[in-house]
Design goal:
Chain lengths: 117, 107
């Protein structure tokens, strides 16, 4: 059974960089696509982007200028960096596994990130 | 981006009721649609993919239909554990987009 677990700071100051890591267990990260999705009361569920184990990425155009997703296959982890955050980036951030056909089949439990000084 | 619009945004129903939720895409997405269930404080759980294919382990009282722009999720006989928020999501064209959710509450 694949499990995903997000980790990282729960509080980030405005204009700083949000950094989260997702650790994958119960399966290799060297298959499938690995995604970040966030959920906020104001914007609902929002797809951030994905990475393939080879390093190829695809980002939501609305966030593309501020987002970087990377992968570390040796640690079975992938990471999210979101720069220049504002209060609008406050959300629960989920990491997830995406099948080759695009279906998100496994989710992490989610981690709340609050942007505030 | 493809806009996904769900209706209603919330509904009240009793155990045993038949419940129908609709989802409309702003452009045709064939059958590239997933329905999720989310309970408070939990991650979404997929119920149906490809518009009508029940995910493994999901009770048969859940069903999905539709193609193109109009889709439906039906719960044939609402159970206590079904009170939750339901979302549709298209995976026809990046970025994947979600409906705003339908909250199913106890009457």
């Amino acid at each position: 059974q694949v499990q995903l677990q997000e980790s990282g700071p729960g509080l980030v100051e405005p204009s700083e960089t949000l950094s989260l890591t997702c650790t994958v267990s119960g399966g290799s990260i060297s298959t499938y696509y690995w995604s970040w999705i966030r959920q906020s009361p104001g914007k609902g569920l929002e797809y951030i982007g994905y990475i393939f184990y080879s390093g190829s990425t695809n980002y939501n155009p609305s966030l593309k200028s501020r987002v970087t997703i990377s992968v570390d296959t040796s640690k079975n982890q992938f990471s999210l960096k979101l720069t220049s955050v504002t209060a609008a980036d406050t959300a629960v951030y989920y990491c997830a596994r995406e099948e080759y056909n695009g279906i998100v089949d496994y989710w992490g439990q989610g981690t709340l990130v609050t942007v505030s000084s | 981006d493809i806009q996904m619009t769900q209706s209603p945004s919330s509904l009240s129903a009793s155990v045993g009721d038949r419940v129908t939720i609709t989802c409309r895409a702003s452009q045709g997405i064939s059958n590239y649609l997933v329905w999720f269930q989310q309970k408070p404080g939990k991650a979404p759980k997929s119920l149906i993919s490809a518009a009508s294919s029940l995910q493994s382990g999901v009770p048969s009282r859940f069903s999905g239909s539709g193609s193109g722009t109009d889709f439906t999720l039906t719960i044939s006989s609402l159970q206590p554990e079904d009170f939750a928020t339901y979302y549709c999501q298209q995976y026809n064209r990046y970025p994947w987009t979600f409906g705003q959710g339908t909250k199913v509450e106890i009457k």
